[in-house]
């Protein structure tokens, strides 16, 4: 066990020696670390959770355990591990547990460490950590930091451009970068080597489906699970229902389909956006729209004969809204008006609808503009909201119609 922990210390020190892009967030690391509560960093695999944790602790005396390695899991003995940590990291102040959800009954062990007064930083690639597991044993004992792939702003940082201070001579480069980001996403591993995007994300997608879903949940019919994942990534931004999916894919039961849909959300691979309705019962019955955590997965896996730039833009806006703290349980929905006109995103704070967001890649056609504007205005009247925006690829202006003012903004400014 001591050899395993010493090897992991070498791994930790090597990781700490690398240069990293500082991620943009509103975290005050000092305040976060001074709290006695567990610091929980969650998000999809390979988005930089471990890096964020290491950077937070870089100048601190901290111990490190990586649960994404089989030797530690195979030789697991909690008491022996704690004794060896004291040997390898004398008088450590913090304990970093990386991908701890791989340890069986991890929540009970973490709860025990918390009671012993250990100052814990935890990373995990599973949304279930925040639902059943964290919510039962560790309620009120943790602070959550959620991480996603690079935002457009961070992608520009990586390419040494300031998104908010672009000079005239940088406009063409910024347009090229925006298009690149829209098509290939923001996974940290591939922003520096775009030629690897498809092969890397193809492998990562399969690894998430097999390792984080099939293995974790002992799924026997892996073919059905994989077929569902492929169907979802190819039908991103479209409405789905468990009944229709069951019939379309020939699954054995609707319950199996629902279970697999939940499984595929857990590792932050897919999100499901409900349709807004004041009546909860009707909202739960309506189809949900499916979104993918990163556009790069669409490039790598989706079966498509066209670019689907409109849907790629919509998917990107969705993930940006998730990044800003909106969630698909309480604060973000899509909407269909009484005349079946759709608004892509209804944003809510408490009981108040604060904004309607429509997404349209190219609004240069008068017919397209009329369709988008009329749908937005009709929905605005029904939902009693006058904060209206249409996100486009490059168009920027203000539209006034029927007493409403609509801000048309390009993705760069949104």
Overall description:
The structure is a single chain. This protein is 45% helix and 18% strand. With 414 residues, it is α/β, with parallel strands linked by helices. The N and C termini lie far apart (50 Å).
Summarize the structure.
By secondary structure, the protein is an alpha/beta fold.
Percentage of residues in strands: 15-25%
So what's the overall shape?
Answer: globular
Q: Determine the mean pLDDT.
A: 93
Number of beta-strand segments: 14
The neighbouring-strand order within the major sheet is 9-10-11-12-14-13
| Helix share bin | 40-55%
* Main beta sheet strand tally, sense and closure: 6 strands, mixed
Separate helix tally = 18
Give unreliable regions as ranges.
none
Q: Ends: how far apart?
A: 50 Å
**By helix and strand content, what is the structural category?**
alpha/beta
Alpha-carbon Rg, integer: 23 Å
Blueprint of the fold:
Layout: H1 2-16, H2 29-34, E1 38-42, H3 49-57, E2 62-66, H4 70-74, H5 78-88, E3 94-98, H6 106-115, E4 119-124, H7 132-137, E5 142-146, H8 152-158, H9 171-184, H10 188-191, H11 197-215, H12 222-234, E6 239-240, H13 242-249, H14 254-265, E7 270-273, H15 280-285, E8 288-292, H16 295-301, H17 309-323, E9 332-336, E10 342-349, E11 352-359, H18 366-383, E12 388-392, E13 397-401, E14 404-410
Parallel strand pairs: 1-4, 1-5, 2-3, 3-4, 11-12, 12-14
Antiparallel strand pairs: 6-8, 7-8, 9-10, 10-11, 13-14
Can you tag this structure with a few keywords?
5-stranded parallel β-sheet; 6-stranded mixed β-sheet; 45% helix; 18 helices; 414 residues; 18% strand; alpha/beta
């Amino acid at each position: 066990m001591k050899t395993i922990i010493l090897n992991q210390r070498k791994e930790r020190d090597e990781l700490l020696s690398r240069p990293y892009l500082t991620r943009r967030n509103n975290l005050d690391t000092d305040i976060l670390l001074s709290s006695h509560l567990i610091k929980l960093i969650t998000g999809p695999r390979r988005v930089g959770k471990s890096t964020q944790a290491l950077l937070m602790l870089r100048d601190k005396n901290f111990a490190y355990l990586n649960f994404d390695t089989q030797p530690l899991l195979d030789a697991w003995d909690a008491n022996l591990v704690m004794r060896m940590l004291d040997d390898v990291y004398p008088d450590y102040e913090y304990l970093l547990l990386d991908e701890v959800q791989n340890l069986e009954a991890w929540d009970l062990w973490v709860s025990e460490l918390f009671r012993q007064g250990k100052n814990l930083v935890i990373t995990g690639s599973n949304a279930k950590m925040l639902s059943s597991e964290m919510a039962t044993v560790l309620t009120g004992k943790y602070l959550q930091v959620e991480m996603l792939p690079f935002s457009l702003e961070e992608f520009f940082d990586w390419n040494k451009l300031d998104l908010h201070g672009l000079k005239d001579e940088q406009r063409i480069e910024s347009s090229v970068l925006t298009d690149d980001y829209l098509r290939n996403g923001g996974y940290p591993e591939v922003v520096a080597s775009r030629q690897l995007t498809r092969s890397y994300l193809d492998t990562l997608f399969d690894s998430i489906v097999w390792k984080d879903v099939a293995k974790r949940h002992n799924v026997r019919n892996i073919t059905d699970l994989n077929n569902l994942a492929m169907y979802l990534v190819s039908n991103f931004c479209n409405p789905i229902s468990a009944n229709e999916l069951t019939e379309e894919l020939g699954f054995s039961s609707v319950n199996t389909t629902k279970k697999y849909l939940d499984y595929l959300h857990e590792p932050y691979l897919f999100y499901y956006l409900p349709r807004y309705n004041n009546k909860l019962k009707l909202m739960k019955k309506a189809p949900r729209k499916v979104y993918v955590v990163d556009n790069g997965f669409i490039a790598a896996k989706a079966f498509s004969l066209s670019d689907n730039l409109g849907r790629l833009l919509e998917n990107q806006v969705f993930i940006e809204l998730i990044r800003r703290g909106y969630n698909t349980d309480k604060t973000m929905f899509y909407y269909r008006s009484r005349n079946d006109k759709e608004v892509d995103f209804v944003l809510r704070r408490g009981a108040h609808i604060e904004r309607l967001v429509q997404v349209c890649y190219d609004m240069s056609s008068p017919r397209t503009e009329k369709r988008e504007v009329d749908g937005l205005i009709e929905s605005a009247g029904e939902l009693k909201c006058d904060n209206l925006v249409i996100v486009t690829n490059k168009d920027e202006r203000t539209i006034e119609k029927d007493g409403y003012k609509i801000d048309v903004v390009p993705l760069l400014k949104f």
